[in-house]
Design a protein that fits this description.
186 residues, mainly alpha, two-stranded antiparallel ribbon
Length: 186
Amino acid sequence: MVVTDHDELADQLRLLRSHGMTTLTWARHRGHASSYDVRAHGFNYRLDELRAAIGLVQLGRLSAENAKRAEISSRYRDALHGTSGVTIPFGELEAGTTSAHHLAVAVLPEGRRDNVRADLGEKRIQTSVHYPPIHLFSVYETLGVRRSLPQTEAIARRVLTLPLFGHLQDDQVDLVIDAVLQSLRT
């Protein structure tokens, strides 16, 4: 589901969602059009009714979910930022902007991420690594355009994504925080 207030972008996305066709089958079936043209290389990105219904319900919850993730992100930042060499980036927002708090990222001390991740995994705390540096993906090597980006690579080895979702309970957030701190102390 894509939501935008840009009319031109919305028109382009509508075109691309259905194989680049100017008129959908349903519109032709209802007699609103008798033919169609294909104006772009598109794909079948149309939602079925069930996913559309779920998406509409979720849109109604978006503000509350974003607010809850903001609260959890703030708790992570308050407890971890500047402690045991941890940095929690993206705390300062530019005036007039709002974060969706899509990820809770911790930058750990050099050489600690894999151990911290393993320690949390043993406690059944799921973590992940977003996003590996794209310039290291194999496709760029085969294209002959791979290059060294030492600062990107250094940060990439230290980044850990902590659990973050709107239904995360306070005691679960405390468990994550305590597990990260305990792991870094060992």
